[in-house]
Amino acid sequence: MKLKNWRESGNYFDYKGFPIFYQLSKTADEVVFCLHGFPTSSFDYHKIWDALAGRYAVLSFDLIGYGFSAKPSNFDYTTFNQTDVLQALLEHLKIKRIHILAHDYGNTITQELLARREEKRLDFSIETICLLNGALFPETHRPILAQKILISPFGFVFRRLIGDAKFKRSLASIFGERTQPTERELDDFLTVFKFNDGRRIAHRLIRYMSERKKYRERWVGALQRTKIPFRFINGLADRVSGKHLVERFREIVPHQTDIIELEGVGHFPHFETPETVLEHYFKFNVAKS
């Protein structure tokens, strides 16, 4: 599916006056809920969308500040507020059961959902969780240069330091050597990032990196305690959260042994090797097929 078609086939819901972009394959009260990461959007899932939608109702949305959603300058872009938007969307769509498929920053949001579940603050149930590459423990995260610039006191000048070509090279650097995105695909990533002048707020979105350290006990603890059916699919060649993350995961969450390791695959398994991710996801979620 082309980016233009993705945008035109989506919908919006209002969150406190801000339009939030989402995709829903069909109306249902139980969905596979695809959560994206930084600095991208729900379009990350377009290569597996049709296959997922052939078996399940599928939902994804652009976090506020990302993709085709609103990118206000006056919004407090915390993980807690992002999760509030997520909950408002599920309430708006009257969804009662979700199967989480999350990537990158979406993993952190999933951890916050697990913490809220323990606090009995969810109006829906989490049936299954499948996580893709993304920092689960702050001590394992290895940010790339662009992220280091954004989180620094000079993050506000990101647009001057990282031009379009550097942005694309930086993003491509976390893909596998043999699973690199095409030039057109990199253009799509850039188009979505720059939509509604997204560059101007990028330094405000990256604060989740600091939050992972501050709320480590809350988020890692919730992950350790969950008994929800769980699978972890990891591209080992990812220098941000690849093989070293899997090793740490086995130390911190030893009872979770359902781990799929993909050799030669980088940070975006669902984008780099969609057929493989689908195969493993369908086997994991076979009871719901």
Helix content: 40-55%
What is the class in the CATH system? Answer: Alpha Beta
Mean pLDDT: 93
- Rg calculated over all Cα atoms: 17 Å
For the record, give the distance between the C-alpha atoms at the N and C termini, rounded to a whole number: 23 Å
The structural domain count equals 1
Biggest sheet strand order reads: 1-2-4-3-5-6-7-8
Secondary structure tally, helices: 14
Descriptive overview:
The chain is of the alpha/beta class and 289 residues long. It has a single domain, classed as 3-Layer(aba) Sandwich (Rossmann fold). The chain is built from 14 helices and eight strands. The two termini are 23 Å apart. The mean pLDDT is 93.
Layout of strands and helices, then pairs:
Elements: H1 3-9, E1 11-15, E2 18-24, E3 30-35, H2 46-53, E4 58-61, H3 79-92, E5 97-102, H4 105-118, E6 125-131, H5 145-151, H6 158-161, H7 164-172, H8 183-194, H9 202-205, H10 208-214, H11 216-225, E7 230-235, H12 243-252, E8 259-262, H13 269-272, H14 274-284
Parallel strand pairs: 3-4, 3-5, 5-6, 6-7, 7-8
Antiparallel strand pairs: 1-2, 2-4
Helix pairs in contact: 2-14, 3-4, 4-11, 7-8
Q: What attributes does this structure have?
A:
about 290 residues; alpha/beta; Rossmann fold; 8-stranded mixed sheet; 14 helices; about 15% strand; globular
What's the short version?
The protein contains 14 helices and 8 strands. The protein is α/β, with parallel strands linked by helices and 289 residues long.
